Q: What sequence folds into this?
């Protein structure tokens, strides 16, 4: 038997988790513990998603072995636990009657599923003890992360205290309510078990109660999120295929986000004003100055110039000022307020930039569709390098964005809609075992009967992945979780990374357990007593028989509510109710929606003009530097020219005295010398937009100045010390002739 497929999947899943963390997180700026905890949380959650299909195929193989008739005459038996290594499509023609999947549990026949005396070994088959040991490590590590470590790290990171003890105390207090929800469920279940005379509380039962409490919390939230995502994910895909509708929705989001962005900026301005006053009060010689410096380091770099740091050592505290100095608690509250304000402003700015990029792209598509030459024209073109430069041409880009991509999204919408219908149907019928109504159970059983283990693993992996996409799409879509966001290009903050890892670890195990129930591999959910073989994941998760009202009622019938949530989402019941209450929701036939769409359209126009002015200014400055060089280069050339003029003047005076001929000479000007000295010590100027807009005038002015200098030298006119000799007037300003 080979562990190569398992090892390859484990390595590939780790690489996928590391790549996603690198794409969305900022490893250089965020703390190493945040990076490590998020990586472990994402990795172990993805392990469950991608390794569970191997567990499913192995379970069906073990069920097949249990259904084989014992041979009439003794024969050589090849057992899957011998030293022989099985290969793909290998068959076992003989098997003993006492082949077992576990040490204490014999396998039984399942003639309804397997009607042949041969069992083909799955291509990814591993020894029976490998997967249980892996599930032990993965499950309990993820539970410790989601219930203890990650929530504590979230509160610790956002705490305003300046000491480790203070941060820990604040984190424990903030998580008291969070831990209370779990302890409440655990305590209620513990009381229920203790009240039953036929049950005794021991170590295994306490562990089962803990697992039940975690799964109950996760399943309760899972059904609500899944019902919304199963409808909204296909709808989102369909909206993306309709450019006009997507552009209208994007404009609506821009107008809606502009309010949050303005509020976040105003809040940050108010907080910075408080920080500046506190920094002015707490000066360099105060004991709390080190705390004040910690607060100042949390302020963005582009805003620190407006703060008064209170580092003037020649100023001391005047009489009566000590009363206005903030206390330690005041600084803790100010520190926490600063962290939240900076995080909120950064979040809204990132979301604003993403929406603007999307809006610009959609408007470019609308303009390019009108082009007869079928070449894509972008307002802010993306410069490709390497082979993409030859592949992503304007013509190819036009065909993809304007012609092919909408149809691909429409076909994908149909596929996702069918998938969502199959999931909803299986959720509301998986508890019925005769006849089997769950479509996933029917498809998986047909594949198992034909020994198509690769199809079993592929279908299981795609199904679990789609369920996860629907759930996590809902988490980062609904308004209540708008504080957290996932943004590419290293723009996701540490708090959002920890939150995403916490939800992955919490929702993935109950989601996979629900999937095993839909394919009828959990007999305690389906009530199939004939099934003695169960997956390794189910054996680790255990069963809820110790709490009968959960195992026989909640876990079976509660998932039926997914169809109620799905219907409400399909008819936009929630959005219409929120719209009636005054909340801004995207409803096509609503006056408020139309007004917000027009407002967002104007905002996009202003933002586009602003960015175009910035790009034009950069282009003009680059052209100016390429043509005339920097300020230092012009100052150096001016100094060299003046030095050469001075040398030529002295040479002319000497030659005139020697030969007795009158020669005119240019006397070096004091203002000119001062000008050259200042330019020599100056730094390169950073031209702003106002200078960039008047560069043509400055260029003509510089040319006239040089022409005037040449004409004075040609006519012999000169001026010294501000007094003119001849008709040429001196410059009025120090830098007029530069």
A:
């Amino acid at each position: 038997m080979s562990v190569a497929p398992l090892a390859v999947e484990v390595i590939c899943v780790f690489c996928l988790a590391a790549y996603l963390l690198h794409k969305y997180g900022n490893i250089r700026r965020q703390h190493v513990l945040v990076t490590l905890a998020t990586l472990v949380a994402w990795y172990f959650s993805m392990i469950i998603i991608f390794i569970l299909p191997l567990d499913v195929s192995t379970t069906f193989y073990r069920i097949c072995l249990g259904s084989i008739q014992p041979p009439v005459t003794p024969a050589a038996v090849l057992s899957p636990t011998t030293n022989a290594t099985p290969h793909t499509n290998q068959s076992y023609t003989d098997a003993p009657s006492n082949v077992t999947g576990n040490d204490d549990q014999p396998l039984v026949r399942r003639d309804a599923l397997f009607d042949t005396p041969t069992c083909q070994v799955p291509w990814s088959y591993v020894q029976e003890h490998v997967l249980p040991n892996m599930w032990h490590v993965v499950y309990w590590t993820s539970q410790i992360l989601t219930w203890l470590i990650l929530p504590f790290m979230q509160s610790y990171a956002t705490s305003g205290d300046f000491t480790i003890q203070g941060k820990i105390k604040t984190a424990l207090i903030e998580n008291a309510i969070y831990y209370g929800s779990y302890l409440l469920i655990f305590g209620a279940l513990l009381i229920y078990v203790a009240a039953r005379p036929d049950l005794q509380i021991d170590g295994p039962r306490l562990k089962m109660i803990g697992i039940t409490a975690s799964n109950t919390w996760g399943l309760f939230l899972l059904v609500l999120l899944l019902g919304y995502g199963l409808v909204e994910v296909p709808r989102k895909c369909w909206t993306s295929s309709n450019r006009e509708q997507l552009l209208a929705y994007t404009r609506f989001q821009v107008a809606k986000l502009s309010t949050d962005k303005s509020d976040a900026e105003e809040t940050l301005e108010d907080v910075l004003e408080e920080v500046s006053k506190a920094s002015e009060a707490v000066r360099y010689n105060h004991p709390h100055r080190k705390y004040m410096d910690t607060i100042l380091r949390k302020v963005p770099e582009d805003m620190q110039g407006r703060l008064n740091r209170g580092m003037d050592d020649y100023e001391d505290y005047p009489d009566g000022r000590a009363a206005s100095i903030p206390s330690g608690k005041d600084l803790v509250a100010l520190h926490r307020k600063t962290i939240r304000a900076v995080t909120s402003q950064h979040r809204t700015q990132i979301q604003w930039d993403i929406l603007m990029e999307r809006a610009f792209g959609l408007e470019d598509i609308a303009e390019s569709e009108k082009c007869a030459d079928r070449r894509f024209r972008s307002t802010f073109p993306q410069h490709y390098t390497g082979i993409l430069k030859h592949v992503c041409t304007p013509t190819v880009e036009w065909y993809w964005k304007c012609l092919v991509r909408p149809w691909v999204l429409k076909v994908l919408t149909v596929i996702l809609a069918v998938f969502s219908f199959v999931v909803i149907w299986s959720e509301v019928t998986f508890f019925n075992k005769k006849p089997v109504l769950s479509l996933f159970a029917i498809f998986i059983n047909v594949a198992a009967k034909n020994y198509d283990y690769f199809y079993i693993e592929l279908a299981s992996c795609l199904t679990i992945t789609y369920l996860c996409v629907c759930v996590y799409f809902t988490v980062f879509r609904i308004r209540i979780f708008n504080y957290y966001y996932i943004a590419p290009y290293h723009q996701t903050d540490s708090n959002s990374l920890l939150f995403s890892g916490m939800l992955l670890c919490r929702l993935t195990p109950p989601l996979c357990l629900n999937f095993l129930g839909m394919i009828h591999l959990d007999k305690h959910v389906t009530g199939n007593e004939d099934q003695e073989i169960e997956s390794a994941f189910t054996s680790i998760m255990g069963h809820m028989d110790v709490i009968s009202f959960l195992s026989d009622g909640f876990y079976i019938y509660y998932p039926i509510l997914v169809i109620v949530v799905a219907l409400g989402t399909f008819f936009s019941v929630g959005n219409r109710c929120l719209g009636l209450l005054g909340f801004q929701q995207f409803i096509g036939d609503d006056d408020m929606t139309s007004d917000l769409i027009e407002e967002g359209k104007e905002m996009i126009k202003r933002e586009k003009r602003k960015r175009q002015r910035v790009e034009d200014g950069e282009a003009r400055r680059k052209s100016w530097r390429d043509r005339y060089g920097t300020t230092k280069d012009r100052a150096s050339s001016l100094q060299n020219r003046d030095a050469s003029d001075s040398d030529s003047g002295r040479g002319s005076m000497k030659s005139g005295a020697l030969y007795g001929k009158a020669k005119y000479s240019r006397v070096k000007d004091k203002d000119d010398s001062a000008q050259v000295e200042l330019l020599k010590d100056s730094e390169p100027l950073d031209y702003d937009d106002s200078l960039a807009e008047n560069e043509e005038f400055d260029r003509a002015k510089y040319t006239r100045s040089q022409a005037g200098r040449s004409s004075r030298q040609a006519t012999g006119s000169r001026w010294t010390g501000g007094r003119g000799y001849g008709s040429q007037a001196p410059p009025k300003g120090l830098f007029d002739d530069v």
User: Anything to note?
Assistant: Residues 3-67+119-158+202-241+390-571 form one domain.
